[in-house]
Design a protein that fits this description.
mainly alpha, 5 helices, three-stranded mixed beta sheet, 158 residues
Length: 158
């Protein structure tokens, strides 16, 4: 069990450090509105990452921690961006809000009792038995995926 506790502590710390790295890397990009290979700009990726953290993974972690087997609908990130994206939103505000959200989530995770990490939830497409820990792992993977996208943009833009 000690290894599992240590894994979860490292997972929380990596979530926090990944958010910080994401912010720092996005701010290094010279033109955050220039389209990347995937068609989105760094600005769009930052908005998407913040919004998914807040409305998808952060929400799922919080609800799983506090509700009995909650069910989650699928989230269409592309449709959400098409409807809500504001190209005039300042990048530093987006990134600061993102980091604050991750830090808030980390505080919650540190305060949870051990058994909360095994609490389960359901998802419309992914099925049942999704633990709080699995949502935290998915959250980190999502941040790291977009961090890597932004890192790849740096050599072209610096």
């Amino acid at each position: 069990m000690k290894e599992l506790y240590e894994y979860r502590a490292r997972l929380i710390e990596r979530l926090v450090s990944a958010a910080e790295e994401f912010r720092e890397t996005c701010l290094k990009v010279r033109d955050p509105h220039a389209p990347l290979n995937n068609g989105w700009s760094v600005h769009q990726i930052a908005v998407h990452t913040r919004d998914v953290d807040k409305m998808v993974y952060g929400l799922r972690v919080r609800r799983t921690a506090h509700e009995e087997n909650p069910e989650f609908a699928n989230f269409d990130g592309d449709a959400y961006m098409a409807e809500h994206y504001d190209p005039n939103e300042p990048l530093n505000e987006i990134l600061n809000e993102f980091v604050m959200g991750v830090n808030s989530l980390a505080e919650l995770l540190r305060a949870l009792p051990v058994e909360a990490w095994s609490r389960e939830s359901r998802h419309a497409r992914l099925g049942s038995g999704l633990t709080l820990q699995s949502w935290v792992e998915r959250s980190l993977a999502h941040i790291l995926e977009h961090l890597e996208e932004v890192r790849k943009a740096l050599p072209r833009q610096e």
